[in-house]
Amino acid sequence: QVQLVESGGRLVQAGGSLRLSCAAAGDTFRTYAMGWFRQAPGKEREFVARTGASPTITYYADSVKGRFTISRDNAKNTLSLQMNSLKPEDTAVYYCAAKAGVSSSRYLEYRYWGQGTQVTVSS
Question: Mean pLDDT throughout 48-76?
Fold first, then answer.
């Protein structure tokens, strides 16, 4: 089992950048596939980005590809999401999640979740 805590969310102007972090507790972080998801008011939770444990292949939603970068630092037990060229449509609560096995773009397949961090992009 892994405990996840997101941080870094804040209000930012459109076109700006923001880096979210997810701190994971435990010594098995490196074995988990990790993902970033977001949920805006009135919408279902949607996939943003994911990365595997081994290999650390990354995959992005079309809406963020080229703007966001997911990365993991197994030595520090952290998952990051670098967000550039932010748009008002990116406004949402962002969650990091972990699952055993291969990564997935389906949020229902993830067992462990952080509490979320609010990202608000003003126009």
Answer: 95
